[in-house]
Amino acid sequence: MELNEIAIENTCVTGAKVEVSKGFVITVAHAENDKFTKEFQRVSKPYLHQIRNGTLDKELQDKLWVGAYVGTVLLDWDGLTLNGEPVPFVKAKVVEILLDKRYQQLRKDIEALAGNYETFRKELVTSVVGE
Questions:
Q1: Burial of 77 by CB count in 10 Å (0-12 exposed, 13-18 middle, 19+ buried)?
Q2: Strand pairing report for 16-21 and 81-82
Q3: Range scoring the smallest mean pLDDT among 14-28, 68-82, 112-126
Q4: Longest Cα–Cα distance in the chain
Q5: Is the Cβ–Cβ distance between 67 and 84 less than 8 Å?
Q6: Is 80 helix (H, G, I), strand (E, B) or coil?
Q7: Which H or E run contains 31?
Q8: According to the model, what pLDDT value does residue 123 have?
Q9: Where in the chain does DSSP place strands (E)?
Q10: Burial (CB count within 10 angstroms: exposed 0-12, middle 13-18, buried 19+), residue 107
Q11: pLDDT digit string, tens, across residues 41-89
Q12: Mean pLDDT of 109-127
């Protein structure tokens, strides 16, 4: 096995550009990066007792998780439109979209890409970014 064939780029932290569908490109860091971990710990700290006891409302837990995810794992996007108009990458709007049940497949796709080390392999990153 050639070690270089399985090497993970520093894009795990800085973000890899991935074409989700024709013309729609996201920039994602790996889901297990330190920035996400620290941000989730920060936003969930007031709810530690409820989290430990399993009594935190599922909707609130989801909001906390998505709020920490956007900007630390999902870093940017380009080419997403709604009714023909571009949807800018603004944290509050992105969080709203990812929490909307109508767009749950988008969220699942993003989570799958961010959680898979294959996304960050050099040859895959190069093929999308063109470097």
A1: buried
A2: unpaired
A3: 112-126
A4: 48
A5: no
A6: coil
A7: none
A8: 46
A9: 16-21, 24-28, 74-78, 81-82, 85-86
A10: middle
A11: 999 999 999 999 999 999 999 999 999 999 999 999 999 999 999 999 9
A12: 75
pLDDT band at 116 (very low <50, low <70, confident <90, very high): confident
- 24, HSE (Cβ side, Cα atoms, 13 Å): 12
Start-to-end C-alpha separation, the chain:
25
**Single-letter residue type at 74:** L
pTM across the whole model: 0.84
- Amino acid identity of residue 130, one-letter, is G
Q: Tokens at residue 110, please?
A: 């993003």
Specify the amino acid at residue 23.
G
Residue 82, classed as helix, strand or coil, is strand
CA 36 to chain centroid, in Å, comes to 9
Residue with tokens 């995810």: 69
| Nearest C-alpha neighbor of 35 from the set 54, 12, 17, 53 | 12
3-state percent helix, strand, coil for the chain, nearest multiple of 5: 55, 20, 25
